[in-house]
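Table S2 (continued). Query chain:
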Amino acid sequence: MAAYTVGSLFSGYGGLDLGVTGALGPGGDTLFVSDVEKGPCAILAHRFPDAPNIGDITRVDWRDVPRVDVLCGGSPCTDLSTAGTRAGMTKDTRSGLWESMFRGVQELRPRLVVWENVLGATSARAFSLLEQRDGRVGAEDGGPVLRALGRVLGDLASIGYDAQWGVLPASAVGAPHKRARIFLVAHHHGQPWVQRRESAAGEAEGGRSRADIGGPDRAHVARGLLSPRGVGLLPTPQATVSTYSSQGYGPNLNEVAVTLMPAPKASDGEYGLPRTSGRPPEKSAHLATRLAYTDYGVYAEAIARWERVTGRRAPSPTEPAARAGGRPRLSAVFVEWMMGLPEGWVTAPEVGLSRSAALRALGNGVVPQQASAAVASLLERERTVGESEGWPEFAS
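Corresponding output:
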């Protein structure tokens, strides 16, 4: 018998689910997933073969969906992100799909709700029927307006859920890129999850096995010991890397990767020259020197730290061009490593994704170690609410 059951919405490649089960401990059993995009659906079918995909969340009859202890999801950020349209959380936007997740919460009444989104949720506008009466926040022109995060918190409070939320960058758990995200956990009023898990100690740990995502221990994260102050961070992976730099946010990951290491040729050897932060005089336009050398430059410290955290050496940042004579291009395997996933989670041949489909899925995903640390810290804050300790201050 499983210690607890999980339902996953807006599942993507399952990064949030991996993080949640990492925080809650072994014995979690994922009963269903939900996505409609071709790439994520292929990943979910391969990685969660026993969990049916309930598909389009707007068409789900929640009466037919099994009840779960934990319901988690990161509703679309398209209209909340500062790099997006900023259209807000309304019934006419993709970010408004939170409303469909909320209907699931209303019907399933899970013991724990986990929601993840971009920082733009704190500033993007939102629509709510609760705010359309005189005297309520957002009801008057020129007055305070309702924000997306406030909409989520208000919806949950209206059906008797208490919530804790905070912002955590992936770099705070050792990732070589920032990717700051909001994480929120909510539970029935007066019934913190931590108390239930402690009271359930000694239960048989059944359920489906989860991938080992690795990562720092919880105490180190809580004290901010992995704060990367002064460390050069790579650009955060984006779903559309080709257009990111044109929006005024600096170079994209693809542009940076091709400056770090040219794609190896079949004739190049693996002689294991140690990496440094300086560009060696023998480095040329390709690896004609037959030396396996990666010049990570200002990113060397951040990459080395993530190697220690994950226990995996960084793969090559680039792969050969699609056409002969073309420039090397960003490797999906490298981005998968940046996102803290088990090797091959998205890029394994048996998953069947093209490079572009893999990069799109990875750019929309969640770093499991980041989610695990955030959820664990928020659950701990549930237990100590009212005491002097609050959400730890992490480096940005």
